Automatic annotation (TrEMBL):
<dbReference type="GO" id="GO:0006303">
    <property type="term" value="P:double-strand break repair via nonhomologous end joining"/>
</dbReference>
<keyword id="KW-0479">Metal-binding</keyword>
<keyword id="KW-0269">Exonuclease</keyword>
<feature type="region of interest" description="Disordered">
    <location>
        <begin position="524"/>
        <end position="569"/>
    </location>
</feature>
<keyword id="KW-0227">DNA damage</keyword>
<keyword id="KW-0158">Chromosome</keyword>
<feature type="domain" description="Mre11 DNA-binding">
    <location>
        <begin position="294"/>
        <end position="462"/>
    </location>
</feature>
<dbReference type="InterPro" id="IPR003701">
    <property type="entry name" value="Mre11"/>
</dbReference>
<dbReference type="GO" id="GO:0000014">
    <property type="term" value="F:single-stranded DNA endodeoxyribonuclease activity"/>
</dbReference>
<keyword id="KW-0464">Manganese</keyword>
<keyword id="KW-0540">Nuclease</keyword>
<dbReference type="InterPro" id="IPR041796">
    <property type="entry name" value="Mre11_N"/>
</dbReference>
<dbReference type="GO" id="GO:0031573">
    <property type="term" value="P:mitotic intra-S DNA damage checkpoint signaling"/>
</dbReference>
<dbReference type="InterPro" id="IPR004843">
    <property type="entry name" value="Calcineurin-like_PHP"/>
</dbReference>
<comment type="function">
    <text>Core component of the MRN complex, which plays a central role in double-strand break (DSB) repair, DNA recombination, maintenance of telomere integrity and meiosis. The MRN complex is involved in the repair of DNA double-strand breaks (DSBs) via homologous recombination (HR), an error-free mechanism which primarily occurs during S and G2 phases. The complex (1) mediates the end resection of damaged DNA, which generates proper single-stranded DNA, a key initial steps in HR, and is (2) required for the recruitment of other repair factors and efficient activation of ATM and ATR upon DNA damage.</text>
</comment>
<protein>
    <recommendedName>
        <fullName>Double-strand break repair protein</fullName>
    </recommendedName>
</protein>
<dbReference type="GO" id="GO:0042138">
    <property type="term" value="P:meiotic DNA double-strand break formation"/>
</dbReference>
Amino acid sequence: KSHTDPIYRYDTFKILIATDIHLGYLEKDAIRGNDTFVTFDEIMKQAVQNEVDFVLLGGDLFHDNKPSRKTMHCCMEVMRKYCMGDRPIIFEILSDQAVNFSHSKFPWVNYLDSNLNISIPVFSVHGNHDDPTGADGLCAIDLLSCAGLINHFGRSRSVEKLEISPVLLQKGNTRIALYGIGSIPDERLYRMFINNQVTMLRPREDEDGWFNLFVIHQNRSKHGATNYIPEQFLDDFLDLVVWGHEHECKIAPVRNEQQLFYVTQPGSSVITSLSPGEAVKKHIGLLRVKGKKMNLQKIPLQTIRQFFIQDVTLSEHPDLFSPEQPNVMLKVMDFCQEKVEEMLEEAERQRLGNSLTPEKPLIRLRVDYSGGFEVFNTMRFSQKFVDRVANPKDILHFIRHREAKDNIKEGMDFEAILSHPTSEVLQLRVEDLVKEYFQKAEKNVQLSLLTEQGMGKAVQEFVDKEEKDAIEELIKYQLEKTQRYLRERRVEATEEKIDEEVKGGAFKEDLAIIRAKAHRDRSDSVRDDDLNLSDEPADIAVESDEASTSAPTIRGRGRGSRGTSRRGRGIYINIHKHI
């Protein structure tokens, strides 16, 4: 295409935004196995059709920490199909790429590599599903980065402090400072913010003239005292925050009135749990940025499998049945069947005219049987819909509000946990089960040398990420450290004295800190000079995407002709410290 075509907006960045794609989720399922691959193809096709400058992913590109060969092959196939070609890239990178991509063996953006012909660059942080693990700290996204398909940014070097250096991009008169944090355990990142150990670097050159875009993959909703990241922790000079990890689609930017930035939550592009948040219509975003102004266009995804969820409370229908009636279970079963049929009819109506929508929908009926009702055989019920729904085994979910007189059992009831529907069991977090186990365990089986958090993390890595040595590493390290601690304290070698010192627990650490100390790269020292606090950011306004009258010089796209050096122009940076 000619560089003078009106499709080129020389001062306007066009960015496709998506998060939580979860490639490979249920890939062995006969019905839903290809859902993630089909939708990923649709997302990248939208990038080409909308002629975006680059794609920005907010983490969890993969569902499994170690994706299967099929999943990795499908991902690389789609990226090669849509991201390579001769289409010119008309924005430049100004920051020091050796800093932005310091963890990579090829520390520069892929479109500046003379061996590659990239038409649409992809920038991504890692999520909690595809985060770095093992002695070398590698993740699946690093494989794509090494292959030249993704620009992986937002890696942290330390578990004790965090320094975020932005990727500085310029297109015409528009400049974007792209910040990112790959997934970090929420409790640890929360602690870093509280202890003022999160540092954000800002361009010294006209720092108020940049559009500050931040990508984060953490809990946004509060799941505990410190198991989330409050929005007010983030710096107030930011303009737009792209929040990954949360699956409910809330893509329309919402203004944080305290920090004066906007937050968009694109949500997942696949349904991974049968919960109300996943039933919200799925979208990706087309972000246009011109100067300090932005416009975010919602793009509905057409290949998403339909999902309908409904709640019913049996005790609210005394006119239809009561626990004392004969054959009440048959009446309840007929009632539930009627509700499922209603959802299937609605799914059929909505699917008319859209050939891209999968034929079989996901259906979930949550039945509250409190008040003396009994559950019936869900497998027999599911057989009626086996050819019409995508999740016949998980259609019904019986719940009952616990009455005050119920006795609470001591210890973990693993049989009760495993009796839940498969989809719910899959959502359980291993570290939470470990923590609950020790909370309910008797005093004689409590941990002394290890922490619940550290043990939970080790078991989680052993189970979810197939790190076979995770538990052994934790125990070996903690044992050696305890022995060294006792020797330094010159503790008397009696069981009573040793127990007394051990119970203090001052030397306990979690698994991540142990591994970080063993394999951490040499961290750059934080510069304490030139501390500057930004002024209150300008409001973000909505502006139409209008073409500029003058065009910039276009960088050559032929092989070997790259025009811009890999290290960029070395824009000076000063420090904005979170306070």
